Queue: 4 jobs
Job 1
Amino acid sequence: MTLPGAAVVVTGAGSGIGRALAHRLAAAGARIVVNDLDAASAAATAQAVGGLAAAGDMTDPGDVQALVQLCWDEFGALDLFCANAGESVPGSVATGDASWQSAWEANVMSQVYAARYLLPAWLERGRGRLLSTVSAAGMLTVPGMAPYVVSKHATFALAEWLRATHAHEGIVVQVLCPMGVRTPMLDRVAPLCSPMLEQSAIEPELVARVAVEALADDRFLILPHPEVAEWYAARGSATDEWLASMNGLHQQLAGLGSTT
Ligand SMILES: NC(=O)c1ccc[n+]([C@@H]2O[C@H](COP(=O)([O-])OP(=O)(O)OC[C@H]3O[C@@H](n4cnc5c(N)ncnc54)[C@H](O)[C@@H]3O)[C@@H](O)[C@H]2O)c1
């Protein structure tokens, strides 16, 4: 896509990956609406990238609709929507329903609302692009993070469905699926799941660079950690072996000394 002059929304852009995306896209000449739940951090990023701050909660359909409308009103277009806001919810099936619900709303419904309010205008003009920040957790699995993993699989499935349904109508949907990225979110979750996440973590600026480069070729899967492609293939072609190795990882992390 042509970035100079493009009208772009980035959600959850007050911190981490969203902030890095806003900087990278602005450096390429895009006009950015910077959303975050936290008004002060949205304002700080907007000021840094010369964009427009728009505080709002992406789990609230009214806020999502207002954000989409603001971009059309202020920029006269909405070319790229980076649905990046999300929540890391650790736990297992024993984790309370409120946490499961919160993961569902933050990681899935936020993107359902985005697509709902983006698609009518995009379908009318025959063009639009959704970059969905999912996670490698939405393609594989992560110890100790059931609500996050399950909801991110649904985010991934939603993006697949949108692409499968609307690709012929000019709608490009892409998923950004990194493993660990050095952001405040990683600081919160890494101690609760795999030390692997921290060991292989990369900087948000690298994630943003890979994502913005991938806008040029429309590929669905954007993998800042290239090894994820290999594990995803193994999951599909040798599912039982892949699951056994994941079980081994879970056991090791639980201190059970797996030899799998
Ligand atoms: N950090 C990682 O290791 C990692 C890896 C893979 C995927 N991700 C995904 O990347 C995305 C960004 O995470 P990050 O690591 O940059 O986290 P982060 O905590 O640094 O930033 C997330 C930002 O989103 C905002 N936010 C949260 N809920 C929101 C809501 N409902 N509406 C609007 N804004 C909201 C927060 O205020 C925060 O500023 C998330 O979807 C996350 O699941 C992160």
Job 2
Amino acid sequence: MPRTIRLSDGKQIPALAWGNGSSGLLASGEMASSLGAIVLRAGITHIDTAQGYHTEAETGESLKASGLSRGDVWITTKETKTTPEDVKRSVEESIARLGSIPDLLLIHNPFVPEHGKIGEFWTYLEALVHDGTLKGCSLGFSNFRPKDIEEVMAVATIKPVCHQLEYHPYVLTHLEPVLALQEKYGIVTEAYGPLTPILRHPGGPLKPVLEKISQRLGVDAGTVLLLWTMQKGAVAVTTSTKPDNIKKLATLNSMEGLSQEDMEEIERVGKTVHFRHYKEHMTKDFPSPDLPDGK
Ligand SMILES: NC(=O)c1ccc[n+]([C@@H]2O[C@H](COP(=O)([O-])OP(=O)(O)OC[C@H]3O[C@@H](n4cnc5c(N)ncnc54)[C@H](OP(=O)(O)O)[C@@H]3O)[C@@H](O)[C@H]2O)c1
């Protein structure tokens, strides 16, 4: 059984997601489709896609090829760019490409709506839930700064359940105000880029900590980071282009967790550094902390 996290609307979201928005997969639709089926058959039952990745149709194909029923799979997609008049059409086109209504629809970033109109945009999505276009679909957002979250909360009658953002130990200090709001409003984190401390910022102060824990547990450092992410109560949105790695990722569902001491040490050491890989949204009007990048 996949690990799940309970959302504020009562649904259980699988805590491990495979994204088809990373560069290796975007290069080839066929690869996104065939790997997606391998992912689902391996027991990772959550696929993360987006209009902007152009992999929604492949997500639907993966589901068909896997032989799994729709109810056994969680699909997250994201509204990437549209005008207010076009929201309904754009969502309907996503549904047609996916072959079903997604389980979760996110606003991909705060610049998808026109400036100053995030709250208004949210109400358009709510209207689509109410008129049945998005029947049963949960709503959320991605790459939102504190002021963007507050704009939604000021108008929301359907509460956002998830916030997808770059999340790993090296962004924790910067994210403090964002995470405080999520706690206040019961919004679950979906963590993309969770392997950044080993892939995009290797050799930082977490290296010896991850090595020590991974040696003790007999797993690799990436596995330790993904376990840490899920034990923090976040959905780990990772990916792999290699069937063997996909099978390894699926074993996370049944793996024993980290100790409290491991969890605290990773967090404490991670918070001494600030490093963000995906800079395009969360840095504008949201200053980074005055910390070294730890290299
Ligand atoms: N909302 C947004 O704006 C946004 C932005 C970025 C990403 N995303 C979503 O998040 C997904 C994942 O993003 P990401 O690429 O940043 O994730 P990531 O988990 O940080 O990195 C994934 C990479 O890690 C490698 N990997 C997998 N397991 C590993 C392990 N145990 N040890 C070492 N390396 C391992 C994979 O390589 P191999 O292929 O070699 O296995 C893969 O290339 C995307 O596909 C997309 O769906 C969303």
Job 3
Amino acid sequence: MSSLGHALREETTDDSGALAGQTVVLRPTEPRHAEEFLAVLTEPEVARWWPDYDLDRVRRELLGPQVFAIEAFRETVGLIMFDEDEDPQYRHAGVDVALAPRVHGQGLGADAVRTLARHLFHDRGHHRIVIDPAADNVKAIRSYERVGFRRVGVLREYERGTDGTWHDGLLMDLLVGELR
Ligand SMILES: CC(C)(COP(=O)(O)OP(=O)(O)OC[C@H]1O[C@@H](n2cnc3c(N)ncnc32)[C@H](O)[C@@H]1OP(=O)(O)O)[C@@H](O)C(=O)NCCC(=O)NCCS
């Protein structure tokens, strides 16, 4: 880690490993979250961007240490996850997020992404975070811009949609110091 990384290192977690945002709390996953996550991911408005999850896949892929349950108003309203490229030459983290449609548009997505970004910068010593929404996911792009992410460029025919055709993605990045 760079000296900048060391200087910025400060714990943002509590004893349980939870991360506190303005309204949201990001909680480490427990087995009970599998069904709650599946309920969110099978909402049509979410499944459009997070297709093909069933309970087995949720348990396999979304109950790990790099996933948090997003809690607000004392209930689980979504999930947020990160991955890390540990190659020292390119070290950075990536983030992905899904929220139940009933809470969209209230700033909770921005709150969750901001809270995880703070953890990745401060506790895990990253200097750069990327996120790659579908190029036509205007709500997600706007929410990430609100946190400070910038548009890097279009990833042409980046991901296959539920209709079986390839769709463009948008690469966005956020450097330490740009978090809003
Ligand atoms: C993407 C997502 C996490 C954003 O969270 P959110 O809490 O709904 O978003 P926020 O309230 O933080 O921000 C939404 C922004 O988009 C704007 N917005 C909402 N609907 C919009 C639309 N149809 N067109 C353009 N902008 C829109 C809002 O005004 C707000 O911008 P503002 O802060 O400038 O007012 C959430 O909507 C979600 O889970 N969607 C389904 C799954 C998904 O798309 N995941 C992301 C995959 S990369």
Job 4
Amino acid sequence: MIPYPSPEQRELELVELVARASATIPGTELIEYGRSVEQRPLHVVRVPSPASTASSVAPRVLVCANTHGPEFIGNRVCVGMLAKLIDDPPPPLRQLHERAELWLAPCLNPDGYARTHARDGAGTLAQLRHNHRGVDLNRNWPLPTGARRLPLPGAGSPTPGDATYRGPSPLSEPETAALDQLLTTQKFHASANLHSFMGTMFPPRVRTRAAAMAYARLCAALRQAQPHTRYLRIASRVFDTFTGEQEDHQHHAHGCWSICVECFSVRASLAQSFGRRVPLFWRFNPRDPQPWVDNDVPGVAAFLLATLDLPPAHP
Ligand SMILES: [Zn+2]
């Protein structure tokens, strides 16, 4: 699965990048915020902002990736935020760091990553996507107060073995429980959650037209900063039905401007696998990740930067 790193290479790369970053950005640190079911560390990198002073901390923004096992490109984009910050950041990333503390959690599901890598990316979605207990971590979040679950495919299944099995109860899994604790303690102003492979942006389901319009503007900022492939916004939805996805919980329970970004594109995915039997992995990830890292790092940074001009997203 070259050019994607093995689990061990991925961890080593992160340690080395943090060491390089801390030489120019003092205080940059690797934090273990929890452990997966199989006891792999859950890592987040904190990059302090020059805007923080002794008496006040700059707003914090979070980029998450790889909550689904096979979605390695999201991991590359998230790690790419740190790599580009060290060497010649694109303007939106430089401006973002000048005003906000960056938190990067590049692999929310290290057990799913390891399983995908061990199988050379071959298998069904239900075999690769989950954590070690067969739970879809992006359906394991609590629903907002007073909300109901949408009775449609993709909304989170109560049946073990299904691709979107939501688990026995919200936050039943150590990966989601640890991240929710981090969300509670750090009070992030904004967050981007990276998936693949549709080339789309999914804002949270919101309850007011004003919030939907704010997300439309934030998505436009993301798109406009993408140099070669501009992602499609799937309309901000004003709904009272929910699916247990991370960005809905972040917006409604933590007051955090949040978005799900599906990196890569349907067209490019089809072009590299059309008419051939390829492992599932190559539907989700580009053969060459670098152009997509170059495309998505400025986009994600521009989204987060645009949120800094807004007050907190109220629950
Ligand atoms: Zn995903």
